[in-house]
Amino acid sequence: MKREDLRNRKRIVVKVGTSSITYPTGKVNLGKMELLARDLSDLHSSGREVVLTSSGAVGAGVGKLNCPPPSSLPEKQALAAIGQGILMHMYEKFFSEYSKSVAQVLLTRDCFSDPERYLNSRHTLFSLLHFGVIPIINENDTVAVDELKFGDNDTLSAMVACNVEADLLIILSDIDGLYDSDPRKNKNACLISEVSEITEAMLESSKTRGSSLSSGGMFTKLAAARMTMPNGIPLVIASSDEPNVVRRVVDGESVGTLFVPSREEGYASRRRWIAAGSSAKGSVVVDDGAAEALLRRGKSLLPSGVKKVEGRFEPGDVIAVKNASNVEIARGVSNYNHDDAAKIMGRRTGEIEKILGRRDYEELIHRNNMAVLL
After folding, report:
1. Which of 139, 165, 320, 324 is 20 to 30 A distant from 259 in Cα terms?
2. How far apart are CA 341 and CA 356, in angstroms?
3. What domains does the chain contain, in order, with CATH numbers?
4. How confident is the model at residue 34, as a pLDDT?
5. Please, which pLDDT band fits residue 142 given cuts at 50, 70 and 90?
6. Using an 8 Å Cβ cutoff, are 209 and 140 in contact?
7. What is the mean pLDDT of the chain?
8. Would you say 7 and 252 are in contact if contact means Cβ atoms under 8 Å apart?
9. Cβ-based neighbour number of residue 42 at 10 Å
10. What does the alpha-carbon distance between residue 348 and residue 13 come to, in Å, rounded to a whole number?
């Protein structure tokens, strides 16, 4: 992969750290937030899809109460509760100046470990992108302890990038990128422009924290890269102090450190996992019309095309899709469990709510969560 290849990336996740949008005092840096909103709005206007993962809730809370940085977990969670509203209020204000709609999404770790919650968050984010909205994501610090105790939003941004099948992840920080030694201790340290393999030596030499209000450091950024690289997602670490840094990265300029993915097929790896690396919990048999729609037109599987439901499965489980000859033609992640699928099979979308008392999804399997086998 070359830097110029980044120009063709359509779905971009940008992570901004606490130190990048707050002053050392903890108060929100309005100038930096406004510049970030302008750059991301311009990127969005160019036809790209943008997801923002933003830290800073604890810092904003500290600034609001004018108190010292918190020392205990309950204090951090309380300050996060105060600061999150401030953060979103400012983002809403700045993005609206460029006629952009934003949405707050607060996630916890079990949104990625629990299959049903993972599927729900994935559907929500895809729907927001479909509506042309810029999701602004943070970990739900008031109830989750992972980020505040030993986690970070670098990891969260990598998880989000994988969840939404991003084409590029940009992590903005208070450092220019990865150096061959600590630039704070060695004035002759050199910036590494590209990394194709993360070594244990890199990880060992990067175990430092960020600012007093942040929870990350270079180690967590390398850990994020180890998540995105195998999934075909390039990651760039760059300084938020660089002028127009997001635009320059997307334009292919050699800014920061590029972590080159180990494969360049983008997020085809997820569909490969569905097709070959997953174990089907159950199956459905579809009619000829549905089979044609899946194989030839890349459509989602609607309940109306299902003739039979086999086995037991829950929402978020991978199931097999068979044609009338009982040949497996696809696999995908089911939106409904086996009982509900059996109740709505062969019925039109408009009938789902009458039958189940609700209509969570129109599709039994969405095309984004399906791998065709033929």
Report:
1. 139
2. 10
3. 3-266 (3.40.1160.10), 271-372 (2.30.130.10)
4. 95
5. low
6. no
7. 87
8. yes
9. 16
10. 36
Joined together, the tokens standing for residue 223 give 């850990």
Q: Which helix (H) or strand (E) holds 13?
A: strand 11-16
Q: What angle do CA 269, 178, 138 make, to 5 degrees?
A: 60
Average pLDDT (322-335) is: 92
Interior CA angle at 17 toward 16 and 23, to 5°?
Answer: 115
Tokens found for residue 361? 């999804």
Tokens 């490969």 found at: 272
Sequence-separated (6 or more) residues with CB below 8 Å from residue 217:
152, 206, 207, 208, 209, 210
pLDDT digits (tens, 9 = 90+) for 285-327: 999 999 999 998 989 999 999 999 999 999 989 999 999 999 9
Q: 99 exposed, middle or buried (CB, 10 Å; 0-12, 13-18, 19+)?
A: exposed
pTM comes to: 0.77
Yes or no: say if 319 and 280 are a contact pair by the CB < 8 Å rule.
Answer: yes
The pair of three-digit structure tokens given for residue 173, joined into one six-digit string = 């920080």
Nearest to 236 by CA among 151, 168, 156: 168
